[in-house]
Design a protein that fits this description.
about 450 residues, alpha+beta, two-stranded antiparallel sheet, 16 helices, about 20% strand, globular, RNaseH-like_sf, IS701-like_DDE_dom, Transposase
């Protein structure tokens, strides 16, 4: 971890959170996301308190009591099935992206990145829609959910813009409680139905929702889990080109020079043709894929899988005008979503929720995404090389215990008043100590009593 400079008044966490909520227009989003309460508490007040709890590294029950409402109110807001958390993240991200557009080079290819991550819940068997899900890293089934996420990237900044907490529709894999509602007329019912559908179908829905809410993008990036002719075709109908890693399956065929080949057969054909291998990749060709009678072109790029001997990777793009090197470079940007998962879990406790209601867990993920957006926004505004982790700890240091600060100011003020009775050596020690205090405390000491 790099050394973090002491925070000053201009970068106080409370001021930064306030600036962020005003920038994304959080105060105007309440009605748009169906936030309805009989009390005077607005959505901004509750979410700001939750974000502060993340920076203080405490759960909501253990965090400081809010001033204008109770902790129970905050919990009820998370569990409110009427709130459209997905729309909230989309609208907030669209507003944030619009503020960043002036500093984004017009030559940048704006892309959406899709991936999922394991949300483990090993000790919560009564949690709603809890299921046995397959962990591709550990190669076994674990208890929890799949956190499907859609992010936005311009090559520098990554922002989570939509999500879905995926369960299962197989009764044998269902462990937790059944959905509390299945009424498709309500947001809560549609959210639960979405959790039990095919992940690729939900992915297209999330992307369409983000585009409809004003998130700009030209490409969609995804790994082999989401890659299929169906996915390529559906995204093309939304006006988006795709770049993904192709499965080396014998069940999917592509037409090349009037003959059908699977990926391995096509690679063998290219090798046999004695086409010279390129410097940055092996081979590249344009093939024709099909989905339900619709034929469309794909550019396939065969690249060396470094460290894996003679193995190779296959990338595909629906934009056949892209050069193979550009496709490889664009696909490399997909790694940003992996860094988001790591940072969100390590610093923002993405997978540490103990909430048992499905709506509450979706609200928890939404607050996590907003908190990460704040950190990414700050990282983009700063000209230094601080990471998301650096900024998180900086925010964390900027939330001191107010009682301790007041006590320290009182103590130092008393010592300064008694300065004339002390020796010069002790006075010098006190002056040096004061010079090392945070700016906010130094300013408080300089104020007249």
């Amino acid at each position: 971890m790099k050394s973090i400079p002491q925070i000053d008044d201009e970068k106080d966490t409370k001021a930064l959170i306030s600036s962020f909520t005003k920038l994304i227009g959080l105060g105007n989003l309440g009605k748009k996301v169906n936030f309805k309460r009989h009390s005077l508490i607005d959505l901004v007040t509750v979410i700001v308190w939750m974000i502060k709890a993340r920076f203080a590294r405490k759960s909501l029950p253990r965090f400081d009591k809010p001033v204008n409402f109770t902790k129970r109110t905050g919990r009820n807001v998370l569990n409110d099935g009427r709130i459209n958390w997905q729309k909230l993240i989309c609208l907030a991200a669209a507003k944030l992206i619009s503020s960043l557009r002036p500093v984004i080079d017009h030559r940048r290819r704006l892309a959406l990145i899709v991936d999922d991550t394991l949300m483990s819940r090993s000790c919560s068997t009564k949690t709603e829609l809890l299921a046995r899900v397959y962990d591709h890293n550990k190669k076994k089934y674990l208890t929890g959910y799949r956190g499907l996420t859609v992010g936005w990237s311009d090559g520098n900044t990554f922002l989570p813009i939509n999500f879905a907490l995926m369960s299962t529709k197989e009764p044998k894999n269902m462990i937790g409680k059944a959905p509390v509602t299945q009424d498709q007329r309500s947001i809560a019912g549609r959210r639960r139905a979405q959790a039990q559908r095919q992940m690729n179908d939900v992915t297209v829905e999330l992307i369409k929702q983000a585009i409809d809410e004003g998130v700009p993008a030209d490409y969609v990036l995804f790994d082999s889990w989401f890659t299929s002719p169906k996915m390529f075709w559906q995204l093309k109908q939304l006006g988006l080109d795709s770049v993904g890693m192709v499965k080396q399956s014998k069940k999917i065929y592509y037409r090349y020079r009037k003959r059908l080949y699977d990926v391995k057969g096509l690679y063998a054909r290219l090798v046999a043709s004695k086409i010279p291998k390129k410097e940055n990749y092996l081979y590249s060709c344009v093939v024709q894929a099909q989905y339900r009678g619709h034929a469309f072109p794909l550019r396939l790029v065969f690249a060396t899988n470094r460290g894996k001997g003679k193995q190779y990777l296959v990338l595909a793009s629906t934009n056949t005008s892209l050069r193979p090197k550009e496709i490889i470079q664009l696909y490399g940007r997909r790694w940003q979503i992996e860094t988001y998962f790591k940072a969100a879990k390590q610093y923002l406790a993405l997978d540490k929720s103990q909430i048992q209601s499905y709506d509450g867990q979706c609200g928890y993920i939404a607050v996590t995404a907003l908190t990460y957006d704040l950190l990414a926004w700050q990282e983009r505004l700063n000209t230094d090389d601080r990471t998301i982790g650096d900024l998180f700890y900086l925010m964390n240091d900027a939330l001191p215990d107010l009682a301790f600060e007041e006590a320290l100011v009182y103590l130092m003020t008393a010592l300064k008043e008694a300065k004339i009775k002390l020796t010069d050596k002790i006075s010098k020690i006190i002056d040096n100590f004061i010079s090392m205090l945070p700016k906010c405390i130094q300013n408080a000491l300089e104020e007249p009593a």
